[in-house]
Amino acid sequence: MIRTILSEVKEYKKVSIITPLFMIMEVIMEMIIPYLMASIIDNGVNAGNLQHIYKVGVVMIVAAAFGLFAGIMGGRFGAKASTGLAKNLREAMFNHIQTFSFSNIDKFSTAGLVTRLTTDVTNVQNAYQMVLRMFTRAPASLICAMFMAFTINSRLAMIYLAAVLILGTILFAIMWHASRYFQQAFPKYDDLNASVQENVSAIRVVKAYVREEQETSKFKKASENIYRIFVKAETNLVYNAPLMQFTVYSCILLISWIGAKMIASSQLTTGELMSLLTYCMNILMSLMMMSMVFVMITMSVASMRRISEVLNETCDLQNPEHPVMEVPDGSIEFKNVDFAYRKDSQEPVLKNINLSILSGETIGIIGGTGSAKTSLVNLISRLYDVSAGEVLVGGKNVKDYDMEALRNQVSVVLQNNVLFSGSILDNLRWGDKNATDEECQRACRLACADEFIQKFPDGYQTHIEQGGNNVSGGQKQRLCIARALLKKPKILILDDSTSAVDTATDAKIRQAFREEIPDTTKLIIAQRISSVQFADRIIVMDEGRIHGFGTHEQLLKTNEIYREVYESQTKGGGDFDEKEGE
User: Fold this and answer.
1) Where are the alpha helices (DSSP H) in 266-385?
2) End-to-end CA, the chain
3) Secondary element (H or E) of residue 30
4) Cα 351 from chain centroid?
5) Strand pairing of 362-367 and 521-525?
6) How many CB atoms lie within 10 A of CB 340?
7) What is the CA radius of gyration of the chain?
8) CA 151/CA 159 separation, integer angstroms
9) From the centroid of its chain, how far is CA 146?
10) Rounded Cα–Cα distance for residues 223 and 217 (Å)
11) Tens of pLDDT along the chain (582 residues)?
12) Which ranges of 361-460 would DSSP assign to H, the alpha helix?
């Protein structure tokens, strides 16, 4: 876990090494000053030697200047190293997430990934900065102050040693107890982010159903869960300050009392006593800083573990050693294919699928909800790997292709496709970033999108809000179809992507496909038989199996499910899930 995190330091290794060096220099300068102060008092003030005061005073100013410089540079380089690590961690996670297959993504919630990229990385950033600065400074200050104290008077220094051992043990016990609560807190942030994300993305539904009060209650509950955990943790930590103050004042009283007696008996000088009191504060404040670092590290351990889970996640799908870079044509073949989303699933989603589709064919796919229509087409572009059997595209196993090359030749238009913030042209060029305005307009004409785009005041420069919230469902689907067409794919998959389009527009889109892209293999998933009845052949799916495969006329004669649904829709206007008589 730690190795995974530190591997992202990369170009910030140099500043990560320099920072502790500056912190040690600052500590050394700080430890010299009390020693010099003792010399001024004993050999300057008490002896009435003004020249000695000037000489040592100049040295103190130089030491203070060096300490100040070292502290500033340590802070500067520490900030650079920690923010650089955070930047690299976010980039590494985001880039790694882009390589995930759908099955990898299914392991992490969207809210969980957002929390890891934001809150968890910030925790690691803060902890790393504290380790470079405080965790270097505090032990160095503790050791140097203890050494100087024993150099001045070992008897009084034993008081410090006893205080350090007692206080260190108590503080460690408090931190250890509090750390359990911190480890529980950060997974709760996932629930909080999930509540916010769900509410904001579906705000129209929330308001339409007047669910603001319920959503507020859900958010309040998630927020209170985090509040309660942190209160429990902080309740333990509140004992730190009182214990520290009690120990500091106890040490000062003991050293002052014993030191005064030693001065009276000429075993100690006034300057040495003042130095010992200064070192007392340095030693005990170092302990306090170390306890703070321990708290921060404890908080960040859970975050480091969650970040490492993402970075160490191995993609289920890998390119072959010598991948095929060209897809010859759009022919598709399934050979004895079984598929399950999880390896330990007892029942596969797709069972014994055997299918052969010619390049350029238009294939309709219908079936009830949960009949695995989408699962079937997801295997074509290798969004998932089959559990058994093989899928061939262009006569070659999809596992033999370079995944990017394969997916560039397979365009998928989903029912709930997403548009991104930017102009209409920006969104269209997701299909081909180098597409000209004319090519974009042609694709929109094929998708019957040009007619409504021209009505916008800004035409193709119309700004699309995030998620496409300023266009209707049908307009969004047609823009997504146009975007897919710009890829000039060999296989085009329409996954119920005309569900929000009226029947007449649906027919125009299908006619444009037949006339303009005859060589592209077209797979059309639909609930309406009118959307697929003019396809070259139609697949009827039922419970993960192919129940029928043929033309519209053949299926009417031979397939009972298809015939019942056809009669239901033509007579009663139902869809595929509404069987006759229900």
Assistant:
1) 270-311, 373-378
2) 57
3) helix 13-39
4) 35
5) parallel
6) 19
7) 35
8) 14
9) 44
10) 10
11) 888 888 899 899 999 999 999 988 988 888 888 878 878 887 888 777 888 888 888 998 998 999 899 989 999 999 999 999 999 999 999 998 888 877 777 777 777 788 888 888 998 998 898 888 888 888 888 888 888 888 888 888 888 788 878 877 877 777 777 767 766 776 677 777 777 777 776 776 777 778 788 888 888 888 888 888 878 777 777 777 777 778 777 888 888 888 888 888 888 888 888 888 887 777 777 777 777 777 777 778 878 888 998 998 888 788 888 899 999 999 999 999 999 887 777 788 999 999 999 999 999 999 888 888 888 998 998 888 898 999 999 999 999 999 889 988 998 887 677 888 889 999 999 888 888 999 999 989 888 889 899 989 989 999 988 777 788 888 888 898 888 888 888 999 988 877 767 778 878 887 888 877 888 999 999 888 888 888 899 999 998 899 999 999 999 999 998 988 888 887 755 555 544 433
12) 373-378, 403-408, 424-428, 437-446, 450-453
Residue written as token pair 């179809």: 481
- Nearest CA among 29, 27, 28, 23 for reference residue 64: 29
Residue found under tokens 């008996």: 265
- Distance, in Å, from the CA atom of 211 to the CA atom of 235, rounded to the nearest integer, reads 36
Closest CA to 160 of 26, 243, 252: 252
What is the DSSP code (8-state) at residue 11?
A: G
Write down the residue that tokens 């094929």 correspond to.
Answer: 446
- Inter-CA distances, 358 with 97, 362, 526, Å: 35, 9, 20
What tokens does 321 get?
A: 């050693």
503 is written with which tokens? 């029947």
Rounding to the nearest 10 degrees, give the CA dihedral for residues 92, 112, 16, 131: -160
pTM of the model: 0.69
Q: Are 50 and 37 in contact (CB under 8 A)?
A: no
Q: Is residue 18 within 8 Å of residue 249, measured between CB atoms?
A: no
User: Which 3 state secondary structure label does DSSP give 315?
Assistant: coil
Residues 6+ apart with CB under 8 A from 537: 357, 361, 363, 364, 549, 550, 551
**C-alpha to C-alpha distances, 366 to 268, 439, 481, nearest whole angstrom:** 96, 32, 19
Residue with tokens 């504290």: 130
Residues present in the chain in total:
582
Q: DSSP letter string over 254-268?
A: HHHHHHHHHHHTTSS
